[in-house]
Structures are given as C-alpha cells and as structure tokens.
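Q: Here's a chain of 126 amino acids. Please give me its 3D structure as tokens.
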Amino acid sequence: MQTFMRLSFIVICSIYTFNVFAAESRPISSKIEDVTVFLNGAQITRKATVNLAPGTTSLLFTQIAANINAQSIQVRGEGNCMVLSVTHQLNYLKAQKKQAEQESLEEKKQSLQEQIGTENIMLEGV
C-alpha cells in the first residue's frame, strides 16, 4: 500500500511538472485596428487571430508599448473559448526596439530644439 502511494505521488508530480512545462507562452503578434486619441491618453484596439487547440493555452502578446496602463488592458475572445486571466509583464531583459518613425520624430525634435536655441541666441544679440 505504501509503495502504491509513493508511486501515485511520483506520477502525480510528474504529470504536474509536465503540464507546467507544456504550458509555455505562445508569442502572438497583433495589428492595430483602431485608435482614439483623448486629451489625457489614447485608446488603441489591437486584433489577432489565433487557432487554439483544445485545452489551456497561454498567449503572449508582443510589441506592445512598455508604458501601457496595466489596469486598462482588456482581452476578449470570440468563438468557443474562455479567457481565464490576463497578466501584464515587462521583459526587462529584452531591449525595447524603437520603431523607425519614433527615431525619426526624436531626430526632428532634436533638430527643432537646436534651431530654437540658435534663434534665442540671435534674439539676445538684438
């Protein structure tokens, strides 16, 4: 009887360990579908289509802004599925990539600040 209990415990622990490792996050890329700009922020609606196998699946949405308000995240599923939980996490180990448009805007901002500085110097001389 004691051997059976040990064997049962080992099998249960093995199944639990297998399920934990089998439930790795599946990276998903989403596309921006709609944007609404407010005075104090913005609402961005993203959409992704995923085919899910029966069972529990953990999805990892990537390429989301790091400064998102975690309390504002909403997830909805269509079809025969159920969203069990939503968790917000930042990956500090992965460097955040700047998009080309963001880099271009930062360069323009720097250029305009230099022009303002030059014009302020010229105004002081007048």
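Q: Can you summarize the key feature?
A: The CA atoms of residues 31 and 122 lie 47 Å apart.
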